[in-house]
Each structure stands twice: as structure tokens, then as C-alpha cells.
Amino acid sequence: MNAELRPDVVFDVIVLGAGIAGYTSAIAAAELGRSVLVLEKEEFVGGSTAMSGGFFAFAGTDEQRAQNIGDDDVLLFDDLRNVGGHANDVELVQFYVDRQAAAYRWLRSLGISFSSVTISSGQSVARSHCTDPKRLLNRLEEVVRSGGLAQIHTGCRALELVRDHQGSVAGVTLDGANGRMTLHARGGVVLATGGFSRSPELLDIFAPEQAAAIPYGGLGNSGDGLRMAWLLGAGLRDMGAVTSTFGSHPDTTIAYHELLTAYYLGAIIVNTQGRRFVDESQSYKVLGDACLRQPDAIGYEIYDSVVRRNSKAGVPVSDLELPERRGRTITADTLEDLASKISVPPGPLVSTIDSYNAAVRNERVDEFGRAGLCNGVGDLIEISTPPFHAYPAKPLLSSTFGGLATTKDGQVVDVCGRPIAGLFAAGEVTGGFHGRAYMTGTSLGKGVIFGRAAGNAVARRCTP
Ligand SMILES: Cc1cc2nc3c(=O)[nH]c(=O)nc-3n(C[C@H](O)[C@H](O)[C@H](O)COP(=O)(O)OP(=O)(O)OC[C@H]3O[C@@H](n4cnc5c(N)ncnc54)[C@H](O)[C@@H]3O)c2cc1C
């Protein structure tokens, strides 16, 4: 049970945002004996974390070994740098790599299990470890509350950071059930407020090309933390590297997140003219960008009954049966019928698929250089055995991977690289780690790894 918030009660640490980064920071600070207050703007906790696919990018795990998947820190590091276009901060990438095994073990020690390991965007081997994000959040909340050191208050929106007379961030002004008040923290404040995928204004400034994407992510992810820190002169990293994920049905709503990556199982993607426009084995973020440049920013994932057999029941994004059951997938016995059902000209669709099949048979070079199912891995499959299926999909802006400049300990630095005393950040509100693009599973992963680091660092600033 939470005590009522009162301005005269001073905490050691205030954490803003109750997603994976906020919870992990809070737990780390509480484990060091600090009193922690978690403020959540929405009436419910979880943010984007609760909506996520639950994939974590870990390397060298028991689950990988059980499937004979050879993976290690070196390969993970190289993949991360490659995905990020070598624009990501080496120190942050190395920090993630050095601590990913400990983060994995920590989650396992809390009873979190990973049901599957699949290959996904930006990975040269299968390393997306899937868990149930809601179960994970419940477990983290349990841990936060269990020690009695941390309180979680929902319906409390932080508005502004407060500095002490020496210029250190020492509290926050919030708007909650009892109106506005200012609360103080001895060690400082951790911003774990998520990204800005729900802020039309910030998207218009930093990523105007995303206007046609479906806005998604936690409802509270409107860049509040970013603005609060920006006001204090915080530096920003990778802000222009916002990309959307290709593969969501145009009618996707917050109630049910629908994302299908049939292209990693062997599907191709065509536009409304029945033409392919990209190498489908690339990161779904690259595919999202490519799709935004197509008419109506829509693409159709086209596959046949042979690809259909690659469906992975129960694995989000790879379960082809799920959208079929929801009536999202269009099916026909001939490509011509499929084309007319999705209002695509049949001639171009048939010739696109003929040409693709010829490349699969090595009779010609693929026009977009596709050489595998996902990131060059996996043998391509001809699309020739009926019935044929089409899944209409748009780019979905689920997350923004640019944000505040921090050190590896989550210390926010200003535009000149100087620490802003007392201000820490973790999770999607931060930038620098991903660089130009994102590897599946690294956003939840960074929430845990950098969340723990920020919680430790802010806790060290105060003596209990
Ligand atoms: C549909 C979807 C699928 C995804 N799948 C994956 C995946 O499988 N693997 C992966 O690695 N990543 C995935 N991501 C991205 C990942 O979920 C997020 O990047 C990550 O969960 C962010 O965690 P966070 O703790 O930083 O922010 P969040 O979980 O978004 O939490 C931030 C919280 O801060 C609150 N907040 C905001 N402003 C304030 C304020 N002023 N005061 C108080 N509270 C505030 C918000 O309401 C929110 O609850 C996915 C995202 C989405 C939307």
C-alpha cells in the first residue's frame, strides 16, 4: 500500500516512468538500500514494455545452446555495430555486451523464462529470446514493492525537473490526484519516460518522414522526459534515426498489436502496383522506410502454402495462423484471383513473382539482391504452390530509438558532454546505443542493462 504523496517527504531517488527501464532502475537503487519513488503518468503501469513482443537480444544462453545456436559476445558486438551503421556509441555497445549475460541471469533468477529463440531483424544468428512482457512487468512490480523501499504512484505526471541551489537535479514537479506538488530526492532523478512515438510535435521536428506511419507505443510516450531534460541543456543522440517497423495491419489498434513478419519466413512484399520494392530479408526498420516511400505507404506480404508451413505457432510475428483467424489474411487459389481481391493489377503481380521465382532457382540475379530469408540466413522459397496468401501491412512507429545523451552509467550529459548533476536516464528516452538502426530485442535489453546501471549510479549519490 502506498503512502499518500506529501511534499515534505524526501526520497533518495525518484524514477519517472513505470516501464522496464523504470522498474529496473528502481530495483537497483532499492537493492542498495535507497528509498525510491516511481511516478507513472498513466493510470496503469507498463508503457511500451507492456505492449512489446517480449523479445530480448541475449547471446550465449542456455536456450541457444539447447538449439545448437553458436553465439557469443563478439558476434553480438559486431552485429550491433553493423546494425547501427557504426554510428552507435562504442562504449555503450560494449557496456551492453559486457552485461547482457548478467542481465539474462538476473531475469532468470526472478523466474522469467524464455519460450523461444528466433532470428530477427539485425541478427546474424537466432538470439531473440521471447518472454511474456506482462508477466515480466508483474514480476518486476512485485520485486519493486516487496522490499518496502519503493512506492509506485500512477496517475502522476512529472512536469518539470527541479534543481537545488548548486544546480543539481533534486526533485520534480508533478501533477497528480492531489494537484500539483514538488517532491525532492537526495540522490537525483532517473528519467525512464520512454520515447516520443506519441508526440506529433516531436515527430514533426525530428522525423517528419514518419507522418504516414501508424503511431504506436505506450499512450504516455509523448517525449516528456526528453523535453524536461532538453530544457536543462541535455545533449541528444540519434534523433534523426527514427524508423518504423514494417508489418502491421492498417487497422491495428492499441487493443491488439498485430505485426507479421511473414517475409522472414519466405514471403515477398509488393506495393499496390504489384511490384517488389526492397530486399525483404533486411531489417524490418529498413523495410518500414522503404514502404513509406510506396503509394499509400502500404505493402502486401505475399506467400504460398509452402511458406505457410514455416509458420511458428505461438511465436508473435511468425505465427501465420493468428492473422488468418482474425480475418486479416486474404487467400486465393490463383495469383490472379489474389491480385484482384487486394486490388493490385494481376499482370504485374504474376510477373513479379515469376521473376522472383527465377531468382530463387538461380536462373537470374534477384533484382533487389535478396539472398536469404532473414539477414542473408535461410534458403529462399519459390512462391508457386496454391493457395496463395496476402497480408496487407503498413509501417508502424512503435518506438523511437534516439534520445538523451548519457554515459554508460545513465548520467545525462549536456550538449557539451558535461554531466547534468543528479539527472540520470535509461530506456527508450536515451539515444546513442542503437545508432542508425535497431536490432530486435535490444530495446528491452537496454532497459534492463542501462536501467540497472542508472539505478546504481543515482543510488551512489546519496548516503542513506
Ligand atoms: C508493439 C511494440 C513491440 C515491441 N517489441 C519489442 C521487442 O520485442 N523487443 C524489444 O527489445 N523492444 C520492443 N519494443 C520496444 C520496447 O518495448 C520499448 O522500447 C521499451 O519497452 C521501452 O521501455 P521504457 O521503460 O524505456 O519505456 P516504457 O515501457 O514505454 O515506459 C515509459 C513509461 O513512462 C511513462 N511516462 C511518460 N512520461 C511520463 C511523465 N511525464 N511522468 C511519469 N511517467 C511518464 C509512460 O506512461 C510509460 O508508462 C516494442 C515496442 C512496441 C510498442
Spatial extent as radius of gyration: 23 Å
| Structural class by SSE content | alpha/beta
Largest sheet: 8 strands, mixed
Mean pLDDT: 95
Low-confidence stretches: none
Work out the strand percent: 15-25%
Termini separation: 22 Å
Helicity level, as a percent range? 25-40%
Net shape? elongated
Give me the number of helical elements.
14
Which hetero ligands occur in this complex? flavin-adenine dinucleotide
Number of strands: 19
Textual characterization of the structure:
The protein is of the alpha/beta class and 464 residues long. The chain is built from 14 helices and 19 strands. The protein has helices spanning 20-31, 47-51, 62-66, 73-83, 90-109, 133-146, 200-206, 224-231, 284-292, 305-308, 321-325, 335-341, 346-360, 442-460, and strands at residues 11-16, 36-39, 55-57, 116-118, 128-130, 150-153, 157-163, 169-176, 179-191, 214-215, 236-237, 245-248, 268-270, 299-303, 330-332, 388-397, 403-404, 411-413, 419-425. Strands 1, 2, 6, 7, 8, 9, 18 and 19 form an eight-stranded mixed beta sheet that branches. Strands 10, 12, 13, 14, 15 and 16 form a six-stranded mixed beta sheet that branches. The protein has a three-stranded antiparallel beta sheet with strand order 3-5-4. Strand 8 (169-176) and strand 9 (179-191) form a beta hairpin. Helix 1 (20-31) packs parallel to helix 14 (442-460). The chain is elongated, with a radius of gyration of 23 Å. It starts with 10 loop residues before the first strand and ends with a helix. The structure holds flavin-adenine dinucleotide. The site of flavin-adenine dinucleotide (FAD) has 44 residues, from helix 1, helix 2, strand 7, helix 8 and helix 14.
